[in-house]
Amino acid sequence: MPNSSPNPLDNPRRGQELFIAETDETGLGAVDAVADESAPTSVWHEAWRYLRRRPLFWISTALILLAILMAAFPQLFTSTDPKLCSLSNSLDGPRSGHPFGFDRQGCDIYARTIYGARASVTVGVLTTALVVVIGTIFGALAGFFGGLLDTLLSRVTDIFFAIPLVLAAIVIMQVFKEHRDILTVVLVLGLFGWPNIARITRGAVMSVKNEEFVTAARSLGASRFRILRSHIMPNAAAPIMVYATVALGTFIVAEATLSFLGIGLPPSVVSWGGDISQGQASLRTAPQVLFYPAGALALTVLSFIMLSDVVRDALDPKARK
């Protein structure tokens, strides 16, 4: 009597269902699930998984957000006018509504510390954005096209790189004695602050442009501009982001240095550098005049440095391992 049981080979779909059921019973299905979960992810996803487990990332981010909030909405932290001064309060200590006391001119130190974040953070953010644009364009063109263009742009970069940033800013700012404002400081610092990021971008582009996916895009007929924009720059963005985070703190310090020397922002603009310059005369008798703006400046710059360190580790596969 012929065997009437169905043969799985006669029905491929039925055979596939039986195979899946058997593998699930033997545990092979669980292995497949584990394999799917361990599938490779993007660099940015892995970086975020690394960052969200680091307390240093959350601490530095919280401090940076606080500084940005102070710069954007100082009225949330104080209702006192930082320019409202009374000599009768000169160098007085803390009192109700004035937790930091008063400076030599009788101005509220707490209010000036809060409002001082606006000028310093604005200069840092705008200058960083400017140098990232200039440096990225120069570095990307030099690294991608190479040849004569690379030589020309590299020599221009070397010329600007040889000029000290603060010294050049001091010299140039002397020309704008009557027209010194936030925009002037941003343009001067941006003019001499882009060579570092240009070099970093050039190296990153040169290391990426010979990868297989770039060669595949070129063989498929993609234009040079599209290859540079869609394939190279997204994969070369990690070192640019890390340096931009460090540069933001550097430019905040540069603005404070210029204001401290009296050639940055005018005295009518409340800034940490200007308050530090005025507070040095009262260092012995009333150190709080210098301590609070200097502490706010140091804490803000430190937060950007800490963020850059943890972001660098997150974007560096060797550091993660």
How would you describe this protein?
By secondary structure, the chain is mainly alpha-helical. The chain is 69% helix and 0% strand. The protein contains 15 helices and no strands. It has helices at 12-26, 28-37, 43-51, 55-72, 109-145, 147-161, 165-173, 182-193, 195-208, 212-219, 224-235, 237-260, 272-279, 288-315, 317-320. Helix 3 (43-51) packs across helix 14 (288-315), helix 9 (195-208) runs antiparallel to helix 12 and helix 12 (237-260) runs parallel beside helix 13 (272-279). The longest helix is centred in the middle third of the chain and has 37 residues, at 109-145.
Summary keywords:
15 helices, 321 residues, mainly alpha, 69% helix
Write the layout of secondary structure elements.
Blueprint (H helix, E strand, L loop, with lengths): L11 H15 L1 H10 L5 H9 L3 H18 L36 H37 L1 H15 L3 H9 L8 H12 L1 H14 L3 H8 L4 H12 L1 H24 L11 H8 L8 H28 L1 H4 L1
Counting DSSP H or I runs of 4 or more residues, the number of helices is 15
Oligomer: single chain
Give the total of beta strands: 0
Sum up the overall morphology in one term.
elongated
Q: From the alpha carbons, calculate the radius of gyration and give it in angstroms.
A: 29 Å
Structural class: mainly alpha
The major sheet is characterized as: none
Taking the alpha carbons of the first and last residues, their distance comes to 65 Å
Mean pLDDT: 83
Relative strand content: under 5%
Helix content: 55-70%
